[in-house]
């Protein structure tokens, strides 16, 4: 499950044809906080083409965490590309949300992972975007 979530983040990071250092750091932080070694994360970063699995089977908490991390990663390098927004919207739809959830979360999630948002509040806001 952790590998699938990181796979999505790695594909987002690579969607602009370059994984920024800040993106790689955030991916490592998420991977290691979920029990993966640095080497396992490095191996995944080296192979970003793995297909994205079925995200609809995740629990509602897992879907929200997935969405939160995708938006955070999109913003972490301080540059947001159209390709990244489109990718995030696609992931949101695969998770069962409407595309508009990305704009809602993007305005409330900070690019610095050290600054945390009120996740419970954000989770409640995302509920209105469920299909």
TrEMBL record:
Domain of life: Bacteria
Name of this protein: TerB family tellurite resistance protein
Provenance organism: Fulvivirga sedimenti
């Amino acid at each position: 499950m952790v590998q699938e979530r990181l796979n999505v983040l790695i594909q987002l990071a690579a969607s602009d044809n370059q994984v920024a250092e800040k993106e790689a750091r955030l991916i490592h932080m998420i991977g290691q906080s979920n029990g993966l070694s640095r080497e396992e994360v490095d191996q995944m970063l080296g192979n970003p083409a793995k297909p994205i699995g079925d995200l609809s089977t995740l629990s509602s908490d897992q879907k929200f965490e997935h969405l939160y991390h995708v938006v955070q990663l999109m913003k972490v390098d301080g540059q947001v590309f159209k390709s990244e927004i489109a990718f995030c919207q696609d992931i949101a739809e695969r998770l069962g949300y409407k595309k508009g959830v990305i704009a809602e979360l993007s305005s409330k999630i900070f690019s610095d992972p050290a600054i945390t948002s009120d996740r419970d509040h954000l989770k409640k806001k995302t509920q209105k975007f469920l299909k």
